[in-house]
């Protein structure tokens, strides 16, 4: 009947396709490039694919892994392994790609890892929070579990960083490629590469555009070089302005026309249009008098929120202080809009639920939960002043002419377009100052906000894998055309610079 074999869409079948398309004759470019395989099937299998791709480009790839970690991902008891369709063992058997087991470089005593303990204690909050799908410095739920996870993270990060430094001292590498730079062991690879002065590249899947990847040199992938991108892309133009209008209409669901290629797979966050009617209680709240503040929150568990706190330890502390402030100022109104994506994110705590508990019985606070279909931009239109943790809703409110105060450091902090008070006292004093003189942002500030939005959502990601990031979606060609995927790998190995330009 012409049906594909049952294993055709497995990591094993993908591996066989990659191995079949290894180039026998290839340019010898002389550089050794380490690629880290870790954490889950997605990143382990991507690392192997990247190694074959980079091998075909003429480089010497070395796949770095922890045997203990990988064996937990590919246990012998799984049916695929029992059937001989074992992805990892078949990869290990291929002598064309070099591998190094990080476990062979593990610290032999406490003294060896001492130089990384301060780094580990600082970074472990990030690792623990992401692993448990809670916020950093969790103090409300699962406190004991968080402390245990934090201590485990300290040990893993110190051991991994020390092992990585020893390995990088033993095996000369010109460049290190690794996922994230924030989550799991990846921060330890970043720290070790820094100390050894080795160029590192960190990559991430880009959830807003399925199949797209982002990257960064010598820093986590989610730490954006916005000023560098602005310099590379040149002055703001009418075409960029037209694209900005198209994107705003897309956000507000006024138009879902995806003729523009960059929007064809874009994730629409809002589930209703800006002009849809509100429910009764929200309408009643909006009809009340008094200055209206709109507060936008982030999804807990989103790695882009990690290591960004400033005046408040986390969102929960911020919301506690914020609701108490508005309770003490009944002449003001506050709408807390939980992120719509809370409905599908795997977080232990939904910020919308937490905010509802805090606001219960406070007449001048209304919470719009993440599960509600209210269009956020309709609320922006009605608000006088914007408040946000570090969400892109801050940028969205600026573009729509609202003054905005941030509670944490957003990715656009260094553009000088939002207030980020450094202490809680400064934060609430700033609310009072803006309330007294709620001036809209200048045209220059709005244009910088639009440029940030363009870079993040249009320019700085590349469609480099399949939309589901699965190994069987990744195909290896012996003689690839210069397309988006080829451009991505040329950036990773340094043939193009971080912004995709030719290197000298």
Mind explaining what this structure looks like?
This protein has 504 residues and is α/β, with parallel strands linked by helices. The protein has two domains: 11-103 and 174-224 and 461-493, Rossmann fold (3-Layer(aba) Sandwich), CATH 3.40.50; 238-459, Rossmann fold, CATH 3.40.50. The chain contains 18 helices and twelve strands. It has helices at 11-20, 41-56, 67-73, 79-82, 87-92, 117-132, 143-170, 186-196, 226-233, 238-251, 280-287, 315-327, 351-359, 376-382, 393-399, 424-436, 443-459, 484-493; strands at residues 32-36, 60-65, 98-101, 175-179, 199-206, 212-217, 292-296, 333-337, 365-368, 385-388, 404-406, 462-463. The strands form two sheets. The protein has a seven-stranded mixed β-sheet, sandwiched between helices. Strand 1 (32-36), helix 2 (41-56) and strand 2 form a beta-alpha-beta unit. The radius of gyration is 24 Å and the shape is globular. The N and C termini lie far apart (54 Å). The relative contact order is 0.12. Residues 1-7 have low confidence and may be disordered.
């Amino acid at each position: 009947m012409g049906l594909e074999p049952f294993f055709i869409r497995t990591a094993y079948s993908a591996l066989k396709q990659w191995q079949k398309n290894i180039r026998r004759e290839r340019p010898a470019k002389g550089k050794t490039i380490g690629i880290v395989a870790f954490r889950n099937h997605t990143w382990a299998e991507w690392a192997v694919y990247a190694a074959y791709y980079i091998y075909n480009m003429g480089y010497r790839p070395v796949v770095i892994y922890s045997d203990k970690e990988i064996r937990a991902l590919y246990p012998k008891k799984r049916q695929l392994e029992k059937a001989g369709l074992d992805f990892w063992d078949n990869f290990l058997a291929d002598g064309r790609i070099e591998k190094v087991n990080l476990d062979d470089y593990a610290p032999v005593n406490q003294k060896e890892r001492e130089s990384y303990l301060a780094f580990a204690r600082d970074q472990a909050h990030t690792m623990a929070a992401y692993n448990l799908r809670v916020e950093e410095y969790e103090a409300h739920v699962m406190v004991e579990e968080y402390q245990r996870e934090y201590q485990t993270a300290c040990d893993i990060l110190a051991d991994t960083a020390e092992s990585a430094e020893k390995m990088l001292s033993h095996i000369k590498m010109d460049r290190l490629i690794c996922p994230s730079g924030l989550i799991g062991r990846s921060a330890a690879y970043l720290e070790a590469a820094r100390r050894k002065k080795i160029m590192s590249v960190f990559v991430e899947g880009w959830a807003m555009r399925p199949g797209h990847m982002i990257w960064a040199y010598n820093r986590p992938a989610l730490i954006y070089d916005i000023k560098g991108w602005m310099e590379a892309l040149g002055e703001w133009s009418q075409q960029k302005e037209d694209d900005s209008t198209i994107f705003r209409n897309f956000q507000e669901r006024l138009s879902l026309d995806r003729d523009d290629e960059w929007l064809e797979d874009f994730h629409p966050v809002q589930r209703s249009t800006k002009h849809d009617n509100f429910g009764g209680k929200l309408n009643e709240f909006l009809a009340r008098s008094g200055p209206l503040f709109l507060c936008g929150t982030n999804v807990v568990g989103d790695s882009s929120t990690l290591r960004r706190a400033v005046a408040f330890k986390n969102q929960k502390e911020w919301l506690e202080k914020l609701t108490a402030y508005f309770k003490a100022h009944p002449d003001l109104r506050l709408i807390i809009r939980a992120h719509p994506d809370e409905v599908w994110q795997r977080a232990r705590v939904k910020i919308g639920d937490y905010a509802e508990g805090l606001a219960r019985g406070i007449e001048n606070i209304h919470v719009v939960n993440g599960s509600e279909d209210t269009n956020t931009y309709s609320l922006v239109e009605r608000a006088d002043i914007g408040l946000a943790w570090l969400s892109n809703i801050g940028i969205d409110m600026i573009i729509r002419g609202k003054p905005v105060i941030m509670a944490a450091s957003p990715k656009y902090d260094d553009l000088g377009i939002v207030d980020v008070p450094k202490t809680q006292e400064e934060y609430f004093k700033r609310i009072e100052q803006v309330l007294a003189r709620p001036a809209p942002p200048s045209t220059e500030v709005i244009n910088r906000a639009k440029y940030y939005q363009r870079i993040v959502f249009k320019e700085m990601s590349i469609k480099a894998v399949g939309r589901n990031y699965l190994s069987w979606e990744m195909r290896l060609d012996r003689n690839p055309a210069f397309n988006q995927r080829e451009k991505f790998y040329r950036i990773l190995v340094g043939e193009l610079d971080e912004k995709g330009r030719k290197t000298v």
